[in-house]
Amino acid sequence: MGCCTGRCTLIFLCALQLLAALERQVFDFLGYQWAPILANFLHIIIVILGLFGTIQYRPRYIVVYAIWTAVWVTWNIFIICFYLEVGGLSKDSELLTFNISRHQSWWSENGPGCVRKEASMSGIKGLDSHSYVSVIGCALEYRYIEVMHSSFQILIALVGFVYACYVVSVFTEEEDSFDFIGGFDPFPLYHVNEKPTNLLFKQTYL
């Protein structure tokens, strides 16, 4: 296949997904978002598998990638619902941190235009070593940044799913056509001449 085909497009989409996943993984690590960290890790592995299958003409790997993209879309829809507080979900809950810590998204304190201020709480008993952090001046709420991240992931995953199905169909057609012309025939045509040759040797021996 030429370079301007579905295969090359899928390779580009997988590379783009890897870059987007790595970027997202960095910020999730900074925010201690353990559930997204695990999901991103699995996503990176499957995308690498899909990329390898596309380069090496392995349709089974691409099928695994296509199935995962459907799961990945579902996960990102959940993330969008979580930050928009749809269906009883709350962005202030500790669901994404597995209730291990009270951390929120890294963007909640480091978004565009955000100014982070710490106020000492030494006057309150039991909180001598703690401080109250307030964030003001944010040009965009962190939940909308997370929603945009997830929306972009959904977009490239859907396009990747379409191209993965297309590439699998092309690979399958090529394999079928190769089988039809005898490309995988374990018994080549020249084996028909083996019997006369053996008879010739027997006659010479007698």
From TrEMBL:
Coiled coil regions in record: none
Record GO cellular component, one term: plasma membrane
Parts of the chain that traverse the membrane: 34-55, 62-86, 152-171
InterPro entries: Na/K-Atpase_Interacting
GO biological process assignments: regulation of sodium ion transport
Signal peptide as annotated in the record: 1-21
Keyword Glycosyltransferase annotated: no
Annotated keywords: Cell membrane, Membrane, Signal, Transmembrane, Transmembrane helix
Localization (cell): Cell membrane
Record's keyword annotation contains Cell membrane: yes
Membrane topology: Multi-pass membrane protein
UniProt similarity note: Belongs to the NKAIN family.
PANTHER family the record matches: SODIUM_POTASSIUM-TRANSPORTING ATPASE SUBUNIT BETA-1-INTERACTING PROTEIN 4, T-CELL LYMPHOMA BREAKPOINT-ASSOCIATED TARGET 1-RELATED
Name by which UniProt lists this protein: Sodium/potassium-transporting ATPase subunit beta-1-interacting protein
Gene behind this protein: NKAIN4
